[in-house]
Amino acid sequence: MASSEEDGGGNGAVEEKESGKRRRLGALATAWLIFYNVAMTAGWLVLGIAMVRFYIQKGTHRGLFRSVQKTLKFFQTFALLEVVHCAVGVVRTSVLVTGVQVSSRIFMVWFIAHSIKQIQNEESVILFLVVWTVTEITRYSFYTFNLLNHLPYFIKWARYNFFIILYPAGVAGELLTIYAALPYVKKTGMFSLRLPNKYNVSFDYYYFLIVVMFSYVPLFPQLYFHMLRQRRKVLHGEVIVEKDD
User: Fold this and answer.
1) For this structure, is 174 an active site residue?
2) Four-residue CA torsion sign, 97, 215, 224, 127
3) Which of the ends of the chain has fewer CB neighbours closer than 10 A, N or C?
């Protein structure tokens, strides 16, 4: 009996130690996420202010992308950390879904807008830039206040209402930008690999972009209606029952 009680006490001490360790790790993860979201909110806010200042001073959108591209590239590429957050379990979100969303943004920035300078003054580029900026300021501020357990109703309202207009507008801007890039890609053959070559592999960036455009058809409705369901759940308290396929 004595031996059994000692074992039980030992197990309790181990469990308590493990529990304390988890709490410390949880506190560190929360602190990091607060820092990350504050930094991202500030970064996109700086980008938004720079865009407004440019337009007020110049009176045109021409040259706007070039003036803010460094800030845009840094903070959008920095968002790759969100995939890491999901992968290590700091955030309970699908790695695949987050990876697709982040990589599609990075693709638009680096492999479309940055690489094809002829389209940088297109109105569609400014459209998705404005949409992204408003969306990210809202999204990251929502996460920040939520982590601090002090979420203003307006931030929550904005998070689950702005997307109704911004999401389709952003998709339109991205698709129109890719469409505007197609003639330049076809003419230059950029990022394409023709046969014969030592790898014995061919790749046509022009047709790849067309495939990317068509991929929006099945993906956009799924994500959009998912957000609408989340909106009903969060703002109106509806219980959403997911149907099995």
Assistant:
1) yes
2) positive
3) C
Q: What is the DSSP letter of 239?
A: -
Mean pLDDT of 104-128: 98
Q: How far apart are CA 83 and CA 44, in angstroms?
A: 19
Output the 3-class SS for 101-150.
HHHHHHHHHHHHHHCCHHHCCCHHHHHHHHHHHHHHHHHHHHHHHHHCCC
Region 9-34: mean pLDDT is 69
At residue 4 the predicted structure's pLDDT band, cuts being 50, 70 and 90, is very low
What token pair was written down for 76?
Answer: 């959008």
- What b/e string do you get for 150-164 counting C-beta neighbours within 10 Å, with b at 16 or more? ebeeebbebbbebbe
Report the predicted TM-score, pTM, of the whole model to 2 decimal places: 0.87
The active-site residue out of 167, 179, 216, 224 is 167
Radius of gyration of the chain (CA): 23
Residue 167 falls in the annotated catalytic set? yes
> What sign results for the dihedral spanned by CA atoms 117, 120, 124, 125?
positive
* Nearest-10 Cα torsion for 222, 74, 87, 227: -20
Identify any residues that bridge with 203 across adjacent strands, giving them in sequence order.
193
Q: Which of 82, 122, 136, 174 is catalytic?
A: 174
| Contact (Cβ atoms closer than 8 angstroms) between residue 152 and residue 145 | yes
